[in-house]
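[recover] target loaded
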């Protein structure tokens, strides 16, 4: 991993952190972003604001969360990021944030599972809710990482959402898709409830999904 590659990856983290902030998905110093760099991981520092990151706010850690490069303390959710990378070799970027609509479902412990929009059925199938655990704790890692065996996005009960993807651009797009989905779900409840896609319609979307992989 060259210094240039590290710098490029840091700049992408800065770019998508800013977009998360602009879209109101990461209030103040909440949330964290990481990118896999071979055996190591670049991750935002503890107490940093994702909308307003600089290169010094991002630190390179190894799989045991030891600092390889950088001076800032890594995010307290570093072990969650590392655990997800360990089970999913195809995931190379992770975003965790407290996006308000997704987090509303997380605090109510309601999974985003209704097949009401084809795009969301296609990208997520379902976004389950991991049991509550103290932010930054080993219990949170234990409760959450296991869902990534079958899912790319998980709500953290009474906390927020975490999403993994093949690269940071796709992780950001998935986050925007999930947040919009949560907003539409909530609005549809206010309007008396969405009409769900039926089993056949859902299966047709799953077939498209398998064909695209
Ligand atoms: Zn959090």
């Amino acid at each position: 991993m060259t210094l240039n590659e590290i710098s490029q990856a840091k700049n992408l983290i800065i770019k998508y952190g800013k977009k998360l902030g602009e879209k109101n998905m990461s209030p103040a110093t909440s949330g964290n972003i990481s990118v896999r760099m071979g055996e190591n991981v670049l991750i935002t520092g503890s107490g940093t604001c994702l909308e307003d990151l600089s290169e010094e706010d991002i630190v390179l850690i190894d799989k045991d969360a030891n600092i390889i490069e950088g001076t800032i303390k890594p995010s307290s959710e570093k072990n969650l990021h590392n655990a997800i990378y360990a089970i999913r070799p195809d995931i190379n970027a992770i975003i965790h944030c407290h996006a308000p609509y997704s987090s509303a479902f997380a605090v109510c412990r309601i999974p985003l599972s209704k097949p009401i929009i084809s795009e969301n059925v296609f990208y997520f199938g379902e976004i389950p809710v991991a049991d509550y655990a103290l932010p930054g704790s080993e219990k949170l890692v234990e409760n959450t990482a296991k869902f990534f065996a079958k899912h790319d996005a998980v709500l953290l009960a009474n906390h927020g959402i975490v999403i993994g993807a093949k690269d940071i651009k796709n992780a950001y797009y998935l986050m925007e898709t999930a947040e919009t989905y949560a907003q539409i779900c909530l609005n549809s409840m206010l309007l008396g409830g969405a009409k769900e896609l039926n089993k056949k319609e859902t299966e047709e979307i799953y077939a498209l999904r398998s064909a695209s992989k």
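[recover] notes: The chain has one domain: 3-212.
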